[in-house]
Amino acid sequence: MDLNSLKKTLEAHGQSQLLEGLSDSRFCDDCRAEYLKKLAAIDYDLTARLYRQAAAPAGNETPEGAGEITPIPVTDSAKLTPEQRRQYIAAGEAIIARGEFAAVTMAGGQGTRLGHNGPKGTFDIGVAEHSLFEIQACRLLRRAALSAGGRQIPWYIMTSEENDAATREFFAAHKYFGYDPANVRFFTQFMLPMVAFDGKIVRDGPLSVKMGADGHGGIFRAMHAHGITADMKARGVKYVFIGGIDNVLVKLCDPLFIGFTAACGTPCAGKSLIKRDPYEKAGVFCLKNGRPSVIEYTEISKEMAEARDARGEFVYGDAHILCNMFTVDALDNAGSEGLPYHVAVKKTKYIDDGGQLTEPSAPNAYKFEAFIFDAFSRAESMGILRVRREDEFAPVKNREGEDSPNTARALYVSARERGALD
After folding, report:
1. What region does 227 belong to: left with phi over 0, alpha with psi -120 to 50, or beta?
2. Which listed CATH number (3.30.530.20, 3.50.50.60, 3.90.550.10, 3.40.605.10) goes with 70-417?
3. Torsion sign over Cα 343, 348, 353, 355
4. C-alpha to C-alpha distance for 245 and 231, rounded to whole angstroms
5. How confident is the model over 140-172, as pLDDT tens digits?
6. pTM score, two decimals?
């Protein structure tokens, strides 16, 4: 898009402020060119639509959102019979051996909250595997070695504009941890501009727009746009696991879960954990209007959070832990159609009318994100496999305290000693 066309587009959308100060002699030609390139890449029609959605008067929805909320059926892995377990594992191992399985890792974040300068996946929690990426690579390689033929599992890694180059360099420097580079593909997630309450796209610098990742639900759109689902289909992949980089116990190639998903015959499946307490900050699986869904912890009422059945178990107690399986066709459909965006109100620095960077005293802008679990409602049903927290969930989110490197390391070491890593 040339400058004149960009000016017309910005004028049409009331965003001409993004070009203010462009001719300032402080800025080099390359800096201007890079800024204009980023402006040209913004989807202004989508941004305008999302702003109208955010600024619209609130409706009369229930705390849990519109629709009837009911419990969802769950399969407890601890209650599987030995024969069921054997059958699921055998089916999963056969799928891996035939090359019909792939793994996707969401790794677009930085390690800032951990005091780490670099992609979060490069962080070392202090175990034999010297980074979160190496932990996952070793798990995939061990599973490949156990499968018939030793076929490597295709591994797709979603990065961000911020950390893509550093992630690729890290893999190259570590010789892909023994992985064949032909079986590893990187792709970037999409970014969306933050929008001030008055509808203006936020600038956080003279030649900088405040952008935010479009959420883990944006992975479908990114995979479709970058040819990832097409590559999977070309390889003969049928089942795809999607998980995050920050759970050091994530079983991203679990034959039991793969076989369970295949047996369910549903487009998607998820793993769950029983909540520690009614108010654990995790979304929970449910049915909304008869369709699979997740209620965020910020949306569930006190009564629903505390509700228990006749056995004393939480009625809505199965937490979504971002360990999901999809058929490749379900991924393709979600990617081509996209998921709805949700609105979050944020406080962010901005360039004011006088050209000064200003720190607001209260929230001043909207951020837009898609959530991966919104893809569940596209299916009539989904399989949910309840697993043990100590075997499969050790997130690294905080520098100290709960969900920190120290807690994750202790859980990882314990799982290794119990033989629960594979």
Report:
1. left
2. 3.90.550.10
3. negative
4. 22
5. 999 999 987 788 999 999 999 999 999 999 999
6. 0.92
